[in-house]
Amino acid sequence: MKKILLYFFVIIAVIQLYRPKKNQHSVTSENHISTVVEVPNTIQLILDRSCNDCHSNNTNYEWYHTIAPFSWGVAMHVNKGKEHLNFDEWAAYNSNQLNHVLEGFSETIETREMPLVGYLKFHPEAVISDDDNQKLLDWIATLDSK
To answer: Three-state secondary structure along the chain?
Structure first.
């Protein structure tokens, strides 16, 4: 039993050597959504609280996000989230990409697929209220026409 525990702790220590690159940038992207569309303060607050950790180039990391294998899972979720929608790269989307992003964004908000349940367990402040959900949908509808 002692050998098994020793092996376990050695493995845990060794996997700490592989650290994924953090999604943190100190400068606002020149392609940020606010450079091409109006983002009302109420919407920006919702995005900051509930979306930007996974859908921007700047994730706020908790202390436990630096411990493998949790760090790997966080990096995977952030990378996947940015593939679907990245508010810091909005201005770089071509019209086809933008239409696809807007359709997915709207559908995701309507069906309340986001934020992910697992994220909400650790970030209960990220829950999107019914009122905020409607504000997002109304705002997205204004983007659709541009």
So the answer is: CHHHHHHHHHHHHHHCCCCCCCCCCCCCCCCCHHHCCCCCHHHHHHHHHHCCCCCCCCCCCCHHHHCCCHHHHHHHHHHHHHHHCCHHHHHHCCHHHHHHHHHHHHHHHHCCCCCCHHHHHHCHHHCCCHHHHHHHHHHHHHHHCC
